Amino acid sequence: MYTLPHHVEFLSDEWLDQSRSFLTEGFRQASHVGAFSLSERFSDAPPHLSFENNDATWRVNWDGQTISVERGFDPKADVVVIGDYQATLMLAQTVGAGDPTLMAKAVREMRSWFGDNAFNMQGGPLDASATAIFASHHDHMARRTVENPDLAHRAQRQGVTQQLKDLEENGFAVIENAISPEFADEVREATIRTLGTHQGDSMQWMLYHGNAFEKLVMNPQFMSMIDSTLGRGAVIASISSIKRGPGKGLIKLHTDYSQVPEPYPDFSMTGVGVWALEDWTVASGPTWLVPGSHKMRRGPRPDDKIEGVPIEMPKGSVVYFQHGVWHWQGDRTEPGERVTIHSHFNRGILRSLEPKKVDIQMLNRNPPRLGEALGEDDWFDRLTADGRDYMRMTHMMNLNRFTNEQKATVLAG
After folding, report:
1. DSSP state of 47
2. For all residues of the chain together, what is the average pLDDT?
3. 248 and 278 share a domain?
4. Is residue 2 part of a domain?
5. What is the pLDDT of residue 381?
6. What is the pLDDT of residues 242-298, one digit of tens each?
7. In angstroms, rounded to a whole number, what is the distance separating the alpha carbons of residues 178 and 277?
8. 133 and 155 share one domain
9. 288 belongs to a structural domain
């Protein structure tokens, strides 16, 4: 397993054991709840979990007195859930089962990317008391459930394998429609509202201004590009916003390797994802990138022949560039405002641009993935008078070894 002791992989044996303990205690004083059964099966689980036919299954049976939680699938259960493992993992990591609006948005984003058939529920509803217990169980496990650590399998199921290859060749990649148009509108409105409150056109610390930014930053498809280029344990350098109107681009040709001596390292140290919250065209003033410029391992020179390309993509898409790629801000010739969120990550061995602000409530309403990005798994940050946190160091070494192996599989394919 590729988890810390207090974390679990979705539907692993450890996940099942913790679920059994939680539900047994939850139903211990629920003799008033009528008998029911529930069973779930999710296809195409990661091979390292060693499920039969790679189907992740479990079933729950409550006879009114005792509860059983076991491996296996019962198609005749009162409530049956069938879906895709990677798609369902998006929901399994969503904390907030007691909030119908929040969960509806999570389902919307999952279906927007994976399709309507990726998750289907039949039967029910359960007794209100049973529903409340399962909602608490869902959140209890969501706070502990990690991302699928198999990068090759995850990227294939997410449909971003080509993007990981593009990153190696071009230094950047685009995931079109990574979020739904509705979510893009929600993030845009939240960004404009936040900028208005602070009376500016750009701002750092956007992560701390609402749930929409927390969800955007941890978008699973985007995070697969982070893992591929920066490794596991990459930390949030900054989450910033920019609002701009018509006119010349204000950010000239540059790389994001400030104060880094040349030649640049032959591995990526930073990466930035720019989220399009409206359609990007040449007229809207998009980011321009120079394909393959990361291979120069230096910044641009005045006499360089620059052949950049504008990033045109629909609302809800993200362009991610890494490894010293040359880029600049294009001119905006159309009316209106371009509003963007910039998700900047650093390799885990580097410090962040924004000093870390650990918000316990934020960590409690999110899965472990956000904590990882905020340094919760950083063995250096956990240094005490007795020395380093060798448990976290060993964990991250094993996780990155597996990630690198699976990345090699992706690039060889």
Report:
1. G
2. 96
3. yes
4. no
5. 82
6. 999 999 999 999 999 988 999 999 999 999 999 999 999 999 999 999 999 999 999
7. 11
8. no
9. yes
Task: Give me 405's structure tokens.
Answer: 């192996």
Verify that 187 and 301 share a domain, yes or no.
yes
**Pair of tokens at residue 325:** 């790629």
Q: Does 280 reside within a domain?
A: yes
Q: Write down the residue that tokens 């209106």 correspond to.
A: 336
Claim to verify: residue 218 and residue 287 sit in the same structural domain: yes
CA distances from 145 to 7, 39, 158, 172 (A): 6, 19, 18, 29
Altogether, the residues listed in the chain come to a count of 413
HSE of 184, CA atoms in CB hemisphere, 13 A: 22
Under 8 Å CB-to-CB from 292, ≥6 apart: which residues?
169, 170, 171
Lowest mean pLDDT segment, chosen from 42-51, 322-331, 342-351, 355-364? 355-364
Q: Taking Cα atoms as reference points, which of 275, 223, 257, 287 lies closest to residue 353?
A: 257
DSSP per-residue codes, 180-210? -HHHHHHHHHHHHHHHHHTTSSEES-GGGS-
Token pair 């869902």: residue? 138
- Measured distance CA(186)–CA(106) in Å, rounded: 13
| Cβ atoms of 2 and 151 closer than 8 Å | no
By the 8 A CB rule, do 183 and 105 touch? yes
The Cα–Cα gap between 280 and 260 comes to 31
- Mark whether 382 and 263 lie in a shared domain: yes
250 lies in the same domain as 372? yes
What are the tokens at 302?
């005045």
pTM of the model: 0.97
**Is 222 in the same domain as 313?**
yes
Task: Identify whether 257 is part of a domain.
Answer: yes
Amino acid at 230: L
Backbone angles phi, psi at 147, to 5 degrees: -70, 155
Statement to judge: residues 233 and 323 lie in one domain: yes
**CA torsion sign, 11 to 46 to 223 to 107?**
negative
Binning the chain into helix, strand and coil, the percentages to the nearest 5 are: 40, 20, 40
Rounded to 5°, the CA angle 352-355-357 comes to: 120
Residue ranges making up the domain that contains 316: 151-412
